[in-house]
Specification:
Blueprint: H1 3-9, E1 25-28, H2 39-47, E2 55-58, E3 66-70, E4 83-84, H3 88-93, H4 95-123
Parallel strand pairs: 1-2, 1-3, 3-4
Length: 124
């Protein structure tokens, strides 16, 4: 049995070292693998204007960082991620999943631009 699944089933929370600073962003996924070397991940994060070094990758929510991308097969509410997609394997195989992800990225960027325009108008 996967150690993380066992701890989750027992409702045991994991501790985080206080001396290790948390990264500001979180990418949720199902794979028990390092996703930071995936070029597709780099591309999506770059489109979201986020550096991969600012991201934690985990299979479950962590208190603190902002969830920017949830690509887990089973989605959990509340959905607080900037973008929500199918798991990475499905994204590579299914064109409509990539299209849906791109639409969300585009909407997020539009929203971000509108917010930044509103801030500049308030300053003048």
């Amino acid at each position: 049995m996967d150690k993380s699944a066992f701890l989750d089933a027992m409702n045991i929370t994991r501790w985080l070292s206080a001396d290790k600073p948390l990264k500001p962003y979180l990418v949720l996924h199902d794979l028990d693998a390092d996703l930071s070397d995936q070029m597709f991940i780099h591309d999506v994060l770059r489109l979201l204007n986020v550096d991969i070094d600012q991201c934690e990758f985990d299979c479950e929510m962590i208190k603190g960082p902002q969830v920017i991308w949830d690509m887990r097969k089973t989605k959990v509410r509340p959905r607080v991620a900037w973008v929500v997609s199918a798991p990475l394997t499905d994204l590579h195989a299914l064109v409509y999943e990539k299209r849906h992800l791109w639409q969300q990225i585009s909407q997020h960027l539009d929203k971000t631009q509108q917010l930044s325009k509103g801030e500049t108008h308030e300053q003048h």
